Task: inverse folding
């Protein structure tokens, strides 16, 4: 078998793949690129949590307090 690599515009990608997938299976072997899994250290959320590391004693309690404060602000106009 021969190997080719092509770069296609996203607008025709579906058409190209449809064509390739409909060729006889014994004549073509489609290999999809493997997706890389990012590690938690690369995620921006983990970096943000690193900033708060050690500053929040109980994260669950801290989150509940924030929600309660937010709920008070939302319903303050209805407390008459």
Result:
């Amino acid at each position: 078998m021969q190997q080719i690599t092509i770069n296609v515009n996203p607008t025709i990608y579906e058409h190209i793949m449809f064509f390739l997938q409909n060729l006889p299976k014994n004549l073509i072997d489609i290999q999809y690129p493997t997706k890389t899994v990012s590690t938690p250290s690369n995620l921006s959320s983990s970096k943000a949590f690193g900033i708060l590391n050690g500053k929040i004693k109980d994260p669950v309690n801290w989150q509940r307090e924030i929600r309660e404060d937010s709920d008070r602000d939302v319903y303050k106009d209805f407390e008459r």
Remarks:
- The mean pLDDT is 75.
- Residues 17 and 50 are 42 Å apart (CA to CA).
